[in-house]
Specification:
Helix content is 27%, strand content 38%. The protein is built from six helices and eight strands. The longest helix is centred in the first third of the chain and has 15 residues. The chain starts with a helix and ends with a helix.
Length: 189
């Protein structure tokens, strides 16, 4: 009887451990940059790589960029370029070049409702330069007082309300909050 119970416990423990993923096998994407130039979308992923050194964990970053005729193709190409499994649970921001506000409304195709609580930020600078600016993946969040999440943007669109989206830029070699841009019904289409 004891052997049977031990065998059942062992089998249950083994089955539960199948959800375990090695950290080294995940590409933890913390920020995404999107811009449209010459009718092509340039998408950049920022991967955070935690490195344990002595008694602390330092962070390094790796950047992946792909350009394609649609955002979906650029995302798919990046998925193929990155040899690890893409992990978006720690996504902080999507940074969009300000001249392409309509990109916001194409994001619904990529992010399920449980993954749409990241911030949307506009920039007058190229998004990749913003991503590469600091050595802290939460730096963008620290300079903006009122964040705007994709979830809030979707809700405002459904309710036909105007919302304010933060704009950041690099000025005198410093990343700063610049202003808010009001978007509404006329810019949702």
């Amino acid at each position: 009887m004891k052997k049977t119970i031990i065998l059942i416990i062992f089998i249950l423990l083994f089955l539960e451990s199948n959800n375990y993923k090695e950290l080294n096998s995940l590409a933890i994407i913390t920020n995404i940059g999107i811009e449209k130039t010459n009718n092509k979308y340039k998408v950049t992923f920022q991967e955070i790589i935690p490195v344990k050194e002595e008694n602390k964990i330092n962070k390094t970053y790796k950047y992946y960029t792909n350009t394609s005729n649609t955002i979906e193709n650029a995302f798919n190409n990046l998925s193929e370029d990155i040899t690890k499994e893409i992990y978006l649970e720690h996504l902080e921001n999507i940074i969009i070049k300000d001249n392409n506000i309509k990109t916001l409304y194409n994001l619904d195709n990529f992010f399920k409702n449980d993954l749409d609580n990241f911030n949307i930020v506009l920039t007058e600078t190229t998004p990749k330069k913003v991503l590469e600016y600091g050595n802290n993946y939460k730096y963008v969040n620290s300079i903006i007082k009122d964040n705007m999440t994709l979830k809030n943007i979707k809700k405002a669109k459904l309710e036909h309300k105007k919302i304010k989206v933060p704009i950041i830029k690099i000025d005198n070699n410093k990343l700063i909050f610049y202003k808010y841009k009001m978007i509404g019904d006329d810019k949702y289409e």
